[in-house]
Amino acid sequence: MVKKTHHKLTTKEKKDLRDKQKEKVENLRAKVEELDIDETKKFTQFDELPLSHNTAKGLKESSFVNMTDIQRDTIPLALKGEDILGAAKTGSGKTLAFLIPVIERLLHQSWNEYDGVGALIISPTRELAIQTYEVLLKIGKYNTFSCGLVIGGKDYAYEEERIGKINILIGTPGRLLQHMDQSASLVLDNLQMLILDEADRILDMGFKKTIDSIVGNLPPQRQTLLFSATQTKSVQDLARLSLTSPKYISTSSEMEVATPASLEQSYLVVPIPEKISVLWSFIKTHLKSKIIVFASSSKQVHFIYETFRKLQPGISLMKLHGRQKQTSRIETTVKFSKAQYCCLFATDVVARGLDFPAIDWVVQLDCPEDSATYIHRVGRCARFGRPGKSLLMLAPSEEEAFISRLKAKKIELNKQSVRVSKKKTIQDKLQSLCFQSPELKYLGQKAFISYFKSILIQKDKDVFKVGEFPSEEYATSLGLPGAPKIKLLEKIKDGSANLESALDKTKEHKNKSRQLSHLSQLDENGDELEEEKKAQTKYDRMFNRKNQSVLSENYLSMNVENKLDGDNEEEEEEEDFMVVKRKDHELREDVPQLDTELTSKRAQKKAMSKKLSAKSQGAGHKLVFDDDGNAHEIYELEHEEDFRKEGDALELKKTYIDKEAEVMTVEDSRDKQTVKEKKQEKKRRRQEIERRLREEEEDDASSDEGAFQVVLGAPDLDNDLEQSASESSDDDRPAKKSKKWFEKEAAESTNGIVEIEDTGKLEDLEALTQRLIHG
Question: In this protein, which residues make up the domain named DEAD-box RNA helicase Q (predicted)?
Answer without folding.
Answer: 44-72
